[in-house]
Amino acid sequence: MQKCKIGIIGFGTVGKGIYKILKSKNDLHPILKDIEIVGIAVKNINKKRDTKLENNLLINDPYELIKDPNVDVIVEVMGGTDIARDIILKSLKARKSVVTANKAVIARYGNEIYSTAAKNGVYVLTEAAVCGGIPIIEPLKRSLKSNQINKMVGIINGTTNFILTKMSNEKADYEATLKLAQKLGFAEFDPTADVEGHDAADKISILSELAFGGKINRVSISTEGINQIDIKDIEYANKLGFEIKLLAFSERNAININDSLSLNIWVGPSLIPKSHPLATVDGVNNAILIDADPLGEIMLYGPGAGSGPTAASVVSDILNLQSSLTKDTKSIDPLLSFNFWRDCHIIESNQISKKNYLRIICLDSPGVIGKIGDIFGKNDVSIESIVQLDASQNKAEIVVITHEVSNGKFEKSKKEINALSEVELIASQLSCI
Amino acid sequence: MQKCKIGIIGFGTVGKGIYKILKSKNDLHPILKDIEIVGIAVKNINKKRDTKLENNLLINDPYELIKDPNVDVIVEVMGGTDIARDIILKSLKARKSVVTANKAVIARYGNEIYSTAAKNGVYVLTEAAVCGGIPIIEPLKRSLKSNQINKMVGIINGTTNFILTKMSNEKADYEATLKLAQKLGFAEFDPTADVEGHDAADKISILSELAFGGKINRVSISTEGINQIDIKDIEYANKLGFEIKLLAFSERNAININDSLSLNIWVGPSLIPKSHPLATVDGVNNAILIDADPLGEIMLYGPGAGSGPTAASVVSDILNLQSSLTKDTKSIDPLLSFNFWRDCHIIESNQISKKNYLRIICLDSPGVIGKIGDIFGKNDVSIESIVQLDASQNKAEIVVITHEVSNGKFEKSKKEINALSEVELIASQLSCI
User: What is the average pLDDT score of chain A?
Assistant: First the structure.
């Protein structure tokens, strides 16, 4: 087997995990012995590190590795967007394949990066960028390619799933649980990207491009986080037989426009029936359900983040490149490369159809449920259940779960309900599957 | 993209599924258009078929397809063992790669088949042979290769899972449920291979070879089926918080002999805690949990059989071969091929350690639980719970669940318990995880 010589850029959690696998005394497949680290580029060579490195692997300048004719593959695990993008593009232009764990860069600059790779006859592999250790990118590029993918729905952010699991199990409020997650290292100091849903939106954007074959306009993904979740909603959901999870959703829509495939893509906190396979996915675990024809429904479940799982995905990508090195380099492997093969567009938010959960605070007066029901009926919104749950000081909390309905009709109903004199506040709104 | 010309041998459920995908009007990746069917070999050309075929694709003699220089890949979906083995070997010797859905042949003749493929510079791909549509063979050969696999445990036979799910949900007995499964087409007329566990043993043998890298002696896999399961055991298990599933289990053992890796492999009906991810896998679905280092635990879940899912796996294997056709054929792709890289052996049954469930029918006399407890204690068998569950006509049923213990110590205890004058019968014994 030909040696595969890699340059690693970044030596944080993932970088250290990669080093650990390659130097491991574990009982690994012999093919792993043929991966050789040429250098590791870091910001500060002299920083004290808990991982002891062999030889003088650390260098300061990542561009040295890109220029080094000895290096076959660049492994970008530094994070961030602008410099990482530059490093990835320059590596590809230097005809070096790239492995990256950087979902933010791929979600934003995927188009430019995929086409630069193709133009230069090399590859960019991204298994570690989505759902840590779960094999999901490779199945989309290979095993599932014999199918028409219809829908993907998943729990693909570990931080928010940890927080929601804790809130649900311990009836704790959001702020306190976020602080705990930060203390335990499951949430970052600035948790915005996770708790506001942007990280999940990055990932569902990458997965949708691979599954449906067209460029996704990342900024059009309707995104809500968990930072508005009230413990009351979790309690009510549990009472009614649901769990609340932050879901990423992507579905093929029947109506296409000018040969461009319509997709319904959103990220948001959602009620899931307790019997649903995704309902038992707890803590920092991730899972993704894929509905495909003729395959049916499969679920891939596992650790969504962490040094070991993410590094394992990076190293398996390196193995894919190593095996491609032995081949006639003039031909590109169509299952390893990725190119868009069609146009896609995200349908507008008011065209999205889904089930909804609504919590309304109103006066505890006998006719109010009827009035709310009338408004939904008039607007053609079919209701699955409407329950009055909590009442105190003349006030009542009413929870409504609708059947699937377009956002347009639902928003119109909400406006009319809000205008009822008995209604004080629409306290929260969530999706349901 | 180079055309990939295939010859299909067999046109039963899976063969028809393949034809349907390749002629599908679904929205599939354009790469699928480059697969061309040269011919389909069947026993009887004139048999009436519900699938209408284009042109004159049907032929009588499978060996004609093997000899045809126009054919790149042979797809063996005829089933059976002896003729299928001959067809696979002759195809490989004619330097044609093979895709097969035939677990019985691979479990028995894998060694001969893998080495013939390697010797002739071609591949044999088997995704459809295990767990129908679930991507499991490819992840073991690719994504998971950066890990040390420690354990695999799965529900990998759809027929028995359908029967056990029905028995559990409807408190129906085994014989009646088997008949229903046969009527619905989920069990064959001769159900032996499924209900006695041999099909699951075939599959865990194939998976273990891929995961651990050594040849498995298929006949040494300790195999029990579900044909002895009493509805009483399912009721008691449910009462105690468990489901009963037919599990296939394969684990790396700490003690190796002469550099040969020791493996603990068995197939048997087992109690699973209801909170365990495998407990909710119902009906004809399959799922497999893989515990690996540094990855952690992942689960792959989906339809374990059926025309569409199995055909989707066959076609994705064909795509893998198609992409290899464009390459320099002198080099073999180490991730697509499979060779044993070490020795493995299965530990003897009395060395296996596991948790056990035992149902004992005895006289309803006050001292009997104490006597049973004493025997286990004396033999160093630690008990998780011992419960007297049903009593009638002076008889009692006692259910014991042990902690993990070697089969040797457990069997010795059983013998002594059987000899107690109060004990009438050890009615059943199951594994627990």
Answer: 94
